[in-house]
Amino acid sequence: MDLGKGLGLLAFVAIVIINFYFLNVSQIFNQGVYQITNLRNSLKNPEFNFHFSENDVTVCVKNPNNFTITVYNMTGNYMYLPKSVVVYPHTEENISPVVTDYQAFANEVSSGDYNVSIEMSFLGLNVTFHEVI
């Protein structure tokens, strides 16, 4: 390696070290890692309460968090959500999914064997979870 390349490499390494020192990159990195690891502890689970009437289903979604939740879809046998619903922070929103065959739906719910998939988004994350009602 000639002298010019060696001095150039040495100068580059020195500049990188000085930038790390002045920009406090390690502190910024540690703060980011801390926020990510504590995100799970700071989230409160949204509540989905299913209410059944004679030929209708209403789902009450309660958002106890400080951010908006968007429910994109709620599907199961004989049920789907016709449009997405936004649930604002610290509010409750009633959702009315469409039930295509209420008698078959009621039979599965009464047996305690009805699976619902709920697709939602918050903080830029898309999440799908399954619930048995």
UniProtKB/TrEMBL annotation:
The chain crosses the membrane at residues 6-23. The keyword Membrane applies. This is Flagellar protein F. Keywords: Membrane, Transmembrane, Transmembrane helix.
